[in-house]
Structures are given as structure tokens and as C-alpha cells.
Automatic annotation (TrEMBL):
UniProt keyword terms in alphabetical order: Kelch repeat, Repeat
Transmembrane segments: none
Pfam families, per the entry: BACK (PF07707), Kelch_1 (PF01344), Kelch_KLHDC2_KLHL20_DRC7 (PF24681)
Name of this chain's protein: BACK domain-containing protein
InterPro entries linked to this entry: BACK, Kelch-typ_b-propeller, Kelch_1
Gene3D superfamilies the record matches: 1.25.40.420, Kelch-type beta propeller (2.120.10.80)
């Protein structure tokens, strides 16, 4: 048990609900022999990074309340939770940063954000550690804006985009494990916006309804069936083995139409339209439910959020985003949707919001380092290089 609790790589989204409760179950399995270890093992938990309500759950737990040794340990740790108001680990002038309870665990999943736009193309790469709730700027990576991004294993593919002068058809791959970039086969058409299935987009002259599919194994693009509508500024997500693309802009009007592509039949079909016209919105999928957020249309920026049940072909309204915006990045991490940056109709923004899917509530998350729209984000899971999480 000591070895497990000491390991920085232990995957514990919530240190109290996951790790502390696991410790209690281990002790309760043989109370007579293991009760004495509780005070010894408490300092191995990363309780300084817990919220105050979670910490209070530990203090008031019947196994702790009344145990003098445990309460002494928790008293020191509790003081270190003032990290939000003073230097981390500083308690009454004493440096406690070397203590294990002060050391955050290394997350197994990391958010990566590439490129974007703010008075010109931005080429930086950002990473987000959900344990420390901090962004890191990894510097210039020569990435564009208005591009697509997809993850396969430990590799991130950046497709197409716009560098401020021209649209690209290039595809570059970032190997997270090695920290290296490599060029891959170009798409058939230059595009802004795309995925491993590159759908629609803008080639600098017109919108398109063409679709290309990229084989990672063969490093080769092939054409597949065209969509029914030409569109750029759309968003897509995969659910139940099918691809859904929604909304967008034809060059003349905003769209609310949604199309579904079944790779097994190689056919596009129209499904129930979105509740609003939109471009520059975002789709993300979680547990085969698609969430549609924000965007813009003739009425301005949008804060609406809805979920689409692909099995029932039905929409359900959800709490709106705190800010109306378009052209933001969005990912799902540990049961939460993060909306990153964007454009509010007048300015690019650096706000980040976090939506707890189970609680159906929006929260403010740490801002990105600079104002940015038209970036792309992804989550690399089971990350092989722990250095990204430090």
C-alpha cells in the first residue's frame, strides 16, 4: 500500500474520493493489524491539492475524528492548503515543498492546445495539467490557425489551416513520447479545418463539401463520399462508430443542418438539425452523447449548449456557457468539457470554462497564457512521457 500511495503516477482524479477512500477500505479489511498505519500513510496522500470541502470530508471522517495522531498530521497539511494565498508549501515561514502531500500526482491525460489567432497567427503549443490546474507554454511550434487536429495513440496530427497569408493542405505529426515533429502526406485540397476525416472547409476561394480519409498506416489520403452540403466553420465529432458534422457557413448563409457518415456503408445521411444556425461552434462527444456549444450567426455570438443523443435523434438543452463566444477549442477530460479561448464578437479571449457533465454546471478554469481564437485542442491519454505532467 505504501508503494502505491507514494507513486506520483497513481491515477486519482479525486484524491479524497479515490485514494483516501481506497486507503480506508484497505484498513477496514483488517482493522486490528492495519489501523496503526493510517497516521503513517496520510502524509502520502496529496491532500494539499484538494479543495477545502474535500479536505473537510477527511477531517470529519469517523476513522479520523478522535484519532490524535491523524489530526496532528492533518493540522499541518491543512495549513499548507493556503497555497492559493501564499507560496506553495510555505507555512509560518517553513518550507514544506519537499513533503509528499505537497507534490501533485502526474496526470495520465494531458490537454494540448496548438496554434490560433490573435492579430495574426499564433504558433505556440500549450499543455494543461488538471492536477495542478496550470497551463504551460511550450514555445513556438510553427502551427497554423483555423486548423484541424486529431489524436491516434501518442501522436497528434495537425491538418491544414491558415498562416495569415494562405490556406494549407499540409499535415504534420507531433510524437508526444519523443517530442518530435514529422511531415506526413498532404491532403488533396488546401483547407482550413479538418480531422483524420477532413470534411468540407475553405481553400482560399470557396467552401467545399469534399471529404478525404487519412490512413495512418499507409500515410495516404483517399477521397470518400461528398457531404450533402458545402460548409466551412463547421464542427464534427464521432459517436457510436459514426461521424457527425453540424452547422457551418456556405459562404452565403449559416447552417443548422447535421449530417452523419457511416464508414461501413460509406454514405452520408441527414439527421435532425441543430436547434440554432451556427458557425464557429464546437462539438465534442462523451459516452456517445454529442455536446454542441456556442458559435455565431446573424444575431452575434452564441452561448447556448445542447446535447444530442445520436441513438434517439433527440436534442436536450443544457446550461448556457458563461460567455457567448465562437472559434474556441473544446475537449473532454475526466468527465468535464473545457472550452478554451475564442472570440466574443469584439476581441479574442483567454478565458477557459469547465463544464461538469454529471453535475450540469459551469465553472471558471485557469486562463490560457494569451488571448487566442481559432486554436485546436486535444487530449492525449495514457501519456507515455511523464515529463509532460510535471
Amino acid at each position: 500500500m505504501r508503494t502505491i500511495l507514494e507513486d506520483d503516477r497513481l491515477h486519482a482524479p479525486n484524491e479524497v474520493e479515490d485514494t483516501f477512500n481506497a486507503l480506508l477500505k484497505w484498513i477496514h479489511a483488517d482493522v486490528a493489524a492495519r489501523k496503526r498505519y493510517l497516521a503513517q500513510f496520510l502524509p502520502l496522500l496529496r491532500l494539499a491539492w484538494c479543495s477545502v470541502p474535500d479536505f473537510e470530508k477527511v477531517i470529519t471522517n469517523p476513522a479520523i475524528n478522535g484519532d490524535g495522531d491523524c489530526l496532528k498530521v492533518l493540522d499541518v497539511i491543512y495549513q499548507s492548503t493556503t497555497r492559493k494565498f501564499m507560496a506553495v508549501g510555505e507555512v509560518a515561514g517553513t518550507d514544506l515543498s519537499h513533503k509528499m502531500w505537497m507534490r501533485p500526482r502526474i496526470p495520465k491525460d494531458i490537454i494540448f492546445v496548438f496554434g490560433g489567432w490573435a492579430d495574426g497567427a499564433i504558433s505556440n503549443m500549450l499543455t494543461y495539467n488538471c492536477r495542478t490546474e496550470k497551463w504551460r507554454d511550450m514555445g513556438n511550434q510553427c502551427t497554423p490557425s483555423y486548423h484541424g487536429m486529431a489524436v491516434i495513440g501518442q501522436r497528434i496530427y495537425v491538418l491544414g489551416g491558415f498562416n495569415g497569408c494562405e490556406c494549407h493542405r499540409t499535415v504534420v505529426c507531433f510524437d508526444v513520447a519523443l517530442g518530435r515533429w514529422s511531415y506526413k502526406a498532404h491532403m488533396g485540397r488546401a483547407r482550413c479545418y479538418g480531422y483524420i476525416y477532413a470534411m468540407g472547409g475553405f481553400d482560399g476561394r470557396s467552401r467545399t463539401r469534399t471529404v478525404e480519409r487519412y490512413s495512418v498506416k499507409n500515410d495516404q489520403w483517399t477521397n470518400v463520399a461528398n457531404m450533402k452540403y458545402m460548409r466551412s466553420d463547421a464542427s464534427a465529432a464521432a459517436a457510436c462508430g459514426r461521424i457527425y458534422i453540424a452547422g457551418g457557413f456556405t459562404g452565403r448563409r449559416f447552417l443548422e443542418t447535421v449530417e452523419c457518415y457511416d464508414p461501413s456503408t460509406k454514405v452520408w445521411t441527414l439527421v435532425k438539425s441543430m436547434p440554432w444556425l451556427s458557425s464557429g461552434h464546437k462539438l465534442v462527444a462523451h459516452d456517445d452523447i454529442i455536446y454542441i456549444m456556442g458559435g455565431s450567426n446573424n444575431n452575434g455570438r452564441i452561448s447556448f449548449v445542447t446535447q444530442y443523443d445520436v441513438r434517439r435523434d433527440r436534442y436536450s438543452d443544457l446550461p448556457s456557457m458563461p460567455y457567448a463566444k465562437s472559434n474556441f477549442a473544446a475537449v473532454v477530460l475526466e468527465g468535464c468539457i473545457y472550452t478554451i479561448g475564442g472570440f466574443d464578437g469584439m476581441n479574442t479571449v483567454q478565458q477557459v470554462e469547465r463544464y461538469d457533465i454529471a453535475a450540469q454546471k459551469w465553472y471558471t478554469a485557469p486562463q490560457i497564457n494569451t488571448k487566442c481564437s481559432a486554436s485546436a485542442a486535444c487530449v492525449v491519454r495514457d501519456i507515455a512521457n511523464p515529463g509532460w505532467g510535471r
